[in-house]
């Protein structure tokens, strides 16, 4: 029932012309689109992509065609340079970004970007490319999706938890719970708990990563893309939540990923994307580390537009995960969804005050 109401609301807002009106009111703003990947539907592979982190190739083509008609799409480096000079934006600009560095960006997104001559930026988690080590979120998803066990017994901070895994829904529900918990605990504790999940499930992604849809780019693919309007920038070595680890470890994650890109890529951008990217995932200390090492800017995953007043080390992006539904896509990239979320938040705060 709730999903039906939400779908009806999307249809009503979209049909009313709300996205077009919102964009018309933002003629001189900067926008950054955030994707994680582009991949076809893959049935019978556990709970792979249940969060719709990767959109369909046909959806991505529709996105690009729609965006090209409504924005001037420019390289991220150009947009950041204009913001750095506190230049008043003269048009509605858009930069397209991908986080993590999945191989499906080369396989399914790059051909479309090249065909339409659209620039993009990929933020690389260097362990995924250099060491062929999967992201910890994918290790969790793979273990829970592929295990034969029907119940998982896990000790979380001295308390035993039992997770039923008999159905697809139970597996995705468990993944959501554990992933959210793992994001909130110290990095060292996260690694131990993740290894326990893999041990008790009897499944680990690392040995089969090369043939899995979770695999990363190769450096040859990166270099080919770089010759065709795709820029690259660092996204840490192992994708930890930087605020959950000591500053010296966070600094190492940042600098090692950037230094490796300098060796493997022509000219990586001095621009950073915070893993997970929510307000609790980085801090003034993180921003200070970036500034100390010569970075020009850092991107979050909170929605919003850009202007000459924007904080260069907390720049917003519109996340387009799960946007195969074009109504959802249009309402997201135009900022309508953010406006609705802001109104809802204000309403809740007013109720709490009363």
Report on this model:
By secondary structure, the protein is an alpha/beta fold. 47% of the residues lie in helices and 14% in strands. The chain is built from 14 helices and 12 strands. Strands 1, 4, 5, 6, 9 and 12 form a 6-stranded parallel sheet that branches. The chain is globular, with a radius of gyration of 20 Å.
Arithmetic mean of pLDDT: 94
Low-confidence stretches: none
Q: How many distinct helices?
A: 14
Distance between the termini: 30 Å
**N to C succession of SSEs:** HHEEEHEHEHEHHEEHHHEHEHEEHH
- Structural class computed from helices and strand pairing: alpha/beta
Question: What's the arrangement of secondary structure elements?
Answer:
Blueprint: H1 2-15, H2 18-24, E1 30-35, E2 37-38, E3 54-55, H3 57-70, E4 72-73, H4 76-84, E5 93-100, H5 103-116, E6 120-124, H6 126-130, H7 136-146, E7 151-156, E8 159-164, H8 168-184, H9 187-201, H10 219-226, E9 230-234, H11 247-264, E10 271-273, H12 284-292, E11 297-299, E12 318-319, H13 326-333, H14 336-353
Parallel strand pairs: 1-5, 1-12, 2-3, 4-5, 5-6, 6-9, 10-11
Antiparallel strand pairs: 7-8
In short, what is this structure?
By secondary structure, the chain is α/β, with parallel strands linked by helices. It has helices at residues 2-15, 18-24, 57-70, 76-84, 103-116, 126-130, 136-146, 168-184, 187-201, 219-226, 247-264, 284-292, 326-333, 336-353; strands at 30-35, 37-38, 54-55, 72-73, 93-100, 120-124, 151-156, 159-164, 230-234, 271-273, 297-299, 318-319.
